[in-house]
């Protein structure tokens, strides 16, 4: 804040105090009567703020940090005390205003960070992330130029990913500055560049102010964001802090993009290996499937055999399969998947279900006798997984997590193909929906998700504990689907937390759907603070916080639009 701006701000507060602070005016009146004194208050811009008397013999300057913003004139020495009271009140008002401004600035910064996070979360390549970072920086910081540099570890060379503003000789500048840029990247610190250093560097001759921040993730630095202005200015510590925040978020997004591209390649390699197993399994048909067709043996089925019935379809997915398997060979992947399926298969069968199809990093199961059995199996799998992970821990292996999604509905089970090649098949939109519900378990951060149709199909819902997560519109479905989280499969501490906050979570959801987003955010924040692994609470906290600043139409129903699978 410049001296002129600061004086203007204090004058504004002073005038507001004399217009609106009735308590102060009453106190001044009482003190005047006590001292039997005349007085007036005149601002530095010659406005009479209080009183009518002029040419009074005594004066008292109302000032702060050697800056005078008004003068108190009075006729008796003891009336100086009135000036001290006025100054004290004004200081308190200035403190409140400063705190309010700081809070507003902090809110703007948080809002910027949130919006920027949303923007870069949609990007999956380095260049678009870098360009978005520069564009966002230009929105909140006074700059005319900017560049994002990445250190290519393979070639030990600094590359420019994005730029903002005109550089007279960009190619030559980058080539000549490579050693300096590499040194700054490896150093990994933020800095407002001194004016003398700018003038001494020919590559920066077109700029008057420069600052930079590293693209840092954990204990390594990926690159550097450099911002500049061709006009005379001085970057502040607050602006450097904002740049550092943008750089940190950008670095995380760039690292994720790099891992995504790497993961895609590795995923293709793993899928090629796993598909061999998957193709072999297509030769076999679950016995329960044969029984559902009214047959006892596979040899009894014929092309075209089919039956329509109501079932519960359940999808299971191994969370973070890429991370789990990145250090495994294809053979180790095979053994891992088989070890997992050997544990889960019996649980499905013990609850009157059967595995219809293995999907590499998960499977699809059918429960002909309804959702009660499917939900029992889901909880049992989550509990068995804890035992499995204890065994893996002894061998220094990473824990395994699974997500479960289920839907209830009618489908056709039958034999399709031709006389030379037959296959067991199920045909129904129920299967597609169940797969997408499982995908939504990642979005919500829930272990077990089920639809309202599954809830209605339960023979005894009182045996379970649920949290309503609202309506969701999934790809391929015209109408939204109400989703519920079954919490009984969560680890003990998290389950205890969710049971203790069931009513509070419901209150938060009610506030959310009633568009009371500020109160909803406060409610979900209370829940999340109690246990930071409560991911649905975190999701709705973020949703509520985001919607506080949005214009919501009358037709808003809180339907989540999520594209899965």
Account of the protein in words:
The protein has helices spanning 3-20, 22-35, 80-121, 126-140, 170-187, 195-200, 237-281, 287-292, 321-325, 330-350, 371-394, 429-444, 452-457, 492-500, 502-513, 517-530, 535-548, and strands at residues 39-43, 48-50, 58-64, 67-74, 145-152, 157-164, 191-192, 209-217, 220-229, 306-319, 354-358, 362-367, 401-417, 422-427, 448-451, 466-474, 481-486, 560-562. Helix 1 packs across helix 3 (80-121), helix 4 packs antiparallel against helix 7 and helix 15 (502-513) packs antiparallel against helix 16 (517-530). 50% of the residues lie in helices and 23% in strands. The two termini are 52 Å apart. Strands 10, 11, 12, 13, 14, 15, 16, 17 and 18 form a 9-stranded mixed beta sheet that branches. With 565 residues, the protein is an alpha+beta fold. Mean pLDDT is 85; it is low at 277-283.
Summarize the helices and strands and which ones pair or pack:
Layout: H1 3-20, H2 22-35, E1 39-43, E2 48-50, E3 58-64, E4 67-74, H3 80-121, H4 126-140, E5 145-152, E6 157-164, H5 170-187, E7 191-192, H6 195-200, E8 209-217, E9 220-229, H7 237-281, H8 287-292, E10 306-319, H9 321-325, H10 330-350, E11 354-358, E12 362-367, H11 371-394, E13 401-417, E14 422-427, H12 429-444, E15 448-451, H13 452-457, E16 466-474, E17 481-486, H14 492-500, H15 502-513, H16 517-530, H17 535-548, E18 560-562
Parallel strand pairs: 13-15, 16-18
Antiparallel strand pairs: 1-2, 1-4, 3-4, 5-6, 5-9, 7-8, 8-9, 10-12, 10-13, 11-12, 13-14, 15-17, 16-17
Helix pairs in contact: 1-3, 3-4, 3-7, 4-7, 10-11, 15-16, 16-17
């Amino acid at each position: 804040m410049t001296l002129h701006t600061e004086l203007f701000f204090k004058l504004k507060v002073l005038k507001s105090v004399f217009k609106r602070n009735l308590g102060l005016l009453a106190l001044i009146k009482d003190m005047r009567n006590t001292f039997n004194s005349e007085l007036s208050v005149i601002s530095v811009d010659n406005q009479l703020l209080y009183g009518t008397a002029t040419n009074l013999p005594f004066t008292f300057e109302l000032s702060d940090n050697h800056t005078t913003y008004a003068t108190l004139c009075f006729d008796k020495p003891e009336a100086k005390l009135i000036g001290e009271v006025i100054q004290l009140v004004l200081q308190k008002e200035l403190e409140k205003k400063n705190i309010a401004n700081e809070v507003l600035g902090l809110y703007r910064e948080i809002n910027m960070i949130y919006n920027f996070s949303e923007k870069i979360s949609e990007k999956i390549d380095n260049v678009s992330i870098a360009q978005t970072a520069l564009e966002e920086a230009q929105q909140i910081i006074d700059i005319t130029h900017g560049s994002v540099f990445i250190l290519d570890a393979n070639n030990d060379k600094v590359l420019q990913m994005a730029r903002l503003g005109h550089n007279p000789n960009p190619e030559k500048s980058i080539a000549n500055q490579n050693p300096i840029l590499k040194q700054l990247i490896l150093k990994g610190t933020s800095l407002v560049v001194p004016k003398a250093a700018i003038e001494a560097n020919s590559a920066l001759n077109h700029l008057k102010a420069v600052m930079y921040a590293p693209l840092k993730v954990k204990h390594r630095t990926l690159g550097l964001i450099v911002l500049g202005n061709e006009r005379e200015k001085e970057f502040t510590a607050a602006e450097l802090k904002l740049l550092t925040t943008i750089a940190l978020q950008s670095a995380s997004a760039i690292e994720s993009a790099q891992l995504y591209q790497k993961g895609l390649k590795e995923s293709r390699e793993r899928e090629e290996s796993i598909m061999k197993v998957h193709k072999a399994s297509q030769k076999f048909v679950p016995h329960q499937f044969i029984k559902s067709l009214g047959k006892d043996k596979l040899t009894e089925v014929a092309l075209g055999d089919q039956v329509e019935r109501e079932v519960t379809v359940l999808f299971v997915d191994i969370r973070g399969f890429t991370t789990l398997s990145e250090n495994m060979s294809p053979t180790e992947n095979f053994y891992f998947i088989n070890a997992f399926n050997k544990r889960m298969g019996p649980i499905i069968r013990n609850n009157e279900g059967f595995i219809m199809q293995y999907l590499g990093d998960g499977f699809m199961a059918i429960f002909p006798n309804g959702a009660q059995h499917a939900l029992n199996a889901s909880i049992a799998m989550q509990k068995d997984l804890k035992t499995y992970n204890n065994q893996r821990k002894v061998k220094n292996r990473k824990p395994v997590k699974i997500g479960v999604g289920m839907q209830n509905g009618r489908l056709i089970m039958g034999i399709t193909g031709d006389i030379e090649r037959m296959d067991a098949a199920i045909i129904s939109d129920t299967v597609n929906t169940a797969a997408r519900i499982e995908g939504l378990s990642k979005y919500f951060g829930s272990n077990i998700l089920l639809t309202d149709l599954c809830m209605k199909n339960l023979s005894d819902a009182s045996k379970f504990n649920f949290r309503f997560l609202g309506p969701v519109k999934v790809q391929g479905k015209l109408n939204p689907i109400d989703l519920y989280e079954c919490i009984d499969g969560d680890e003990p501490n998290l389950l205890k937390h969710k049971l203790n906050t069931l009513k509070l979570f419901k209150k938060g959801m009610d506030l959310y759907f009633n568009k009371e987003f500020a109160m909803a955010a406060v409610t979900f924040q209370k829940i999340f603070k109690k246990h930071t692994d409560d991911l649905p609470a975190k999701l709705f906290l973020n949703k509520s916080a985001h919607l506080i600043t949005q214009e919501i139409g009358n037709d808003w129903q809180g339907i989540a639009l999520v594209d899965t699978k």
